[in-house]
Automatic annotation (TrEMBL):
Superkingdom assignment: Eukaryota
Protein name stated in the entry: tRNA (guanine-N(7)-)-methyltransferase non-catalytic subunit
CC per GO annotation: cytosol; nucleus; tRNA methyltransferase complex
UniProtKB keywords: Nucleus, Repeat, tRNA processing, WD repeat
Amino acid sequence: MTADEKNLKLWDTKTWNLIIERTVQKKITSLTFSPTNDILWANKFGSVFAIQHSDFIDPSLQFANEEDTDHPKVKFLLGHCSLITHLKFCRFGEGFVLISTDRDEKIRTSLYPESYCILSYCLGHKGFISSIATIEYDPFHGKLYAITGSGDGTARLWSIPDGKPLDQHAPHPAPSSPTPPPTVKDLAIHSTPSETTLALIYEECAEVHLFNVELPSGRLSKVAREVLPSVPLCLGVVGGLFFVSTLKDGLLAFRPRGHALGQPEGLAQINPTLITQNEEKLEQLLEKLDWGNMRKLPDKVLKEQKKTKKIKTQQ
């Protein structure tokens, strides 16, 4: 776990006790566990590093704050030319694929742990990649898929690892409209042997949109829309249900086909605590993590900023 800082924190999810905390050199933008039990993190300069879990928790291993990425136990995996937004794994045959996304619309697929071997780039988005989910339809025969959300307002379905675009969904207004499209804030996948459902939420929109993902043909078809009592923060899947986290109403649940459950008994017990304790802290954190900070400024604005900075330097 990490926040708007340079610390990596490892927690025991059964007790939520902090196991160890380490400080790294640069601010972290994404992190994950590998299927081989490595800990991966990406920094704001587009570099991805890995360390074995056993080494990370070894109390005798010391990081020098300015040299952590030069430590012999830390392995450099790959680099982007922009801030990395997500790291995601999926099985591929007898090995694994690492998908990395960035602020400059790029989606890279690499073998893991041989991450120097680039399989493809998924190209088509016109804005930063804000969210990603993978579908292991038939990984041992190379049938993998990824769905990505972006600051351009679209959700796109890709074939992995060849990077072929299959389908996309764009909200209203259309991308050609002078009104900027809403960012796809988060998305999640629920899969069963008979069907795959995609749920996604947009920035500043109190709705959840549900789609049927037709595989292996690669089609997205909208099936339902759930109106929420407040704007959602993120969503996920647990035990066959979609869960939406909101700032004002806590956790909400609904079935993959759009049948709302509201707040089951278990959620009704914990939501008051979540809401009262976290609202102020979340508002402060969300200001720092606002997707607006990821959007590129127009060239005209960038030129003006450079000009102003140059004048100040000369003074």
